[in-house]
Amino acid sequence: MVNTIGVIGLGVMGSNIALNMANNGEQVAVYNYTSDLTEKLMAKLEGQILTPYYELEAFVQSLAAPRKIFLMVTAGAAIDSVIQSLIPLLQEGDVVMDGGNSHYEDTERRYDELKAHGIGYLGIGVSGGEVGALTGPSIMPGGDLHFYNEVAPILTKIAAKADGEPCCTYIGPKGAGHFVKMVHNGIEYADMQLIAEAYTFLRGNLGLTVEEIADIFETWNAGELKSYLIEITTEILRKKDAVTGLPLVDVILDQAGQKGTGKWTSLQAIDNGIPTSIITEALFARYLSALKEERVQAQPILAGPNKRMQNLEKEQWIEYVRQALYMGKICAYAQGFTQYKMTSEIYNWNLPLKDIALIFRNGCIIRAEFLNVISEAYDEKADLANLLIAPYFADKTASYQQSLRNIVCEGIQSGVALPCLSSSLAYYDSYRTGASNANILQAQRDYFGAHTYKRNDMEGTFHTEW
Ligand code: NDP
């Protein structure tokens, strides 16, 4: 039996990726280090479209040379362990792909190790969850271009399509693909939190019911906010709990989990001096949500604002929320794409920002109408310093910024935390401030630590005996 590709790891994602490949005409060998998952998957399949192997060596030998192996196993030590078992079985020119959420620095280390054996290693960002893996995810491959070219026909076939084009493009060398996936997830955190805050305002400040908010989101999904996250939030809000009959969201515990990619995004930004406050605020919002017991205890202890007799005109304020959400989204994506740009410069990756926006248009969790305008912005100016100053976004923020101010002010006055919306406004206002207050910081640093400062009216480095 000669198989055209092999998939290792038959969990949620791996089994669906393997089926996606088989559905697209590939002869797929599958292997899992414990036989249970393989047996379970094969029992579920009616036709014999995947070929199972229970020995790694037989699995590898069944593959046509150069061998193409796609790993979809738990990120971290499991990947290293699979790679170590594979190395003695592979030959020069074979290609190993890691489709899991590996940290891009781990990918660079593994790339170097396999390169020493002449084996290609591609770190492949895959987004789209369980369903996307089966029906077409967004795929972000990084590594050596010639190895990517070997597997490109398969990856582009299994990827989602947007306007007929595959949502898969070569991202850049070494860990670039996994880096782009990591920041994608950071942007996803911010996008999700912004939507949650819009919901909070509609529910708490405008007194709307969950059903009314679902209707509003549905309307928004027909306009410029159209996106997978708005679409699924609409469906989530319509779902009733089978036990109580209440909206299911009302019985879901308000403690958010996370698997670490948002944290990695923030850590990388902090390490490299990249301002991604909205993305990091979304991460902190999840951390704060986890302190449920403390929040419940603090509620009767800590004072809020005086009760205000504020009767907001609903239609008007719903539109303010919509515009504030769009504005927040623009700021969050501006930060994520700044992280791409600045990191690309650090590593000399030459990340194709326009194409990254294009492959996010379908398959992935942050897929949205909005990504078309981002890609147009980079098409017009590839070295754009920040999305905010692209003509489309400068015009849009000019019309929407007042709505964001209205929502954030009302949140502050009513004691409702809107961390990502507030952070978006602070970012927008900071970014458009030519003369910041960092002169005070520099003076303070020079005062207590003789750290020196520069002047805005002459060259040189100065120190004052304060
Ligand atoms: P699952 O937990 O469903 O599957 C993990 C797979 O890894 C299983 O096949 C498991 O085998 C295998 N595995 C675990 N430990 C080892 C080991 N030491 N050696 C060999 N194989 C091992 O996870 P998912 O399918 O959800 O995720 C797989 C990867 O894809 C992860 O990196 C994840 O972050 C990433 N990902 C997940 C997405 C999602 O929506 N779920 C989206 C995009 C990426 P066994 O069960 O027998 O232990």
UniProtKB/TrEMBL annotation:
Biological processes, Gene Ontology terms:
D-gluconate metabolic process; pentose-phosphate shunt
**Alphabetized GO MF terms:** NADP binding; phosphogluconate dehydrogenase (decarboxylating) activity
Segments forming domain 6-phosphogluconate dehydrogenase C-terminal: 177-466
The enzyme's main class, written as a single word, is oxidoreductase
Q: Which reaction does it catalyse?
A: 6-phospho-D-gluconate + NADP(+) = D-ribulose 5-phosphate + CO2 + NADPH
The record places the active site at: K181, E188
| Residues reported to bind NADP(+) | G9, L10, G11, V12, M13, G14, N32, Y33, T34, V73, T74, A75, N101
Which Gene3D superfamilies does this one have? 6-Phosphogluconate Dehydrogenase, domain 3, N-(1-d-carboxylethyl)-l-norvaline Dehydrogenase, domain 2, NAD(P)-binding Rossmann-like Domain
Q: Which domain of life is it from?
A: Bacteria
Note whether Oxidoreductase occurs among the keywords: yes
Instruction: State the UniProt keywords alphabetically.
Output: Gluconate utilization, NADP, Oxidoreductase, Pentose shunt
Q: What is its EC number?
A: 1.1.1.44
Pathway field of the UniProt record reads:
Carbohydrate degradation; pentose phosphate pathway; D-ribulose 5-phosphate from D-glucose 6-phosphate (oxidative stage): step 3/3
Q: Which residues bind substrate?
A: N101, S127, G128, G129, H184, N185, Y189, K259, R286, R445, H451
Q: Which family does it belong to?
A: Belongs to the 6-phosphogluconate dehydrogenase family.
| Known role | Catalyzes the oxidative decarboxylation of 6-phosphogluconate to ribulose 5-phosphate and CO(2), with concomitant reduction of NADP to NADPH.
- How is the quaternary structure described? Homodimer.
Give the NCBIfam families listed for this entry: gnd, PRK09287.1
The protein's name is: 6-phosphogluconate dehydrogenase, decarboxylating
Origin organism of this chain? Metasolibacillus meyeri
* Biological classification of the source: Bacteria, Bacillati, Bacillota, Bacilli, Bacillales
Q: Which gene is this protein's source? A: gnd
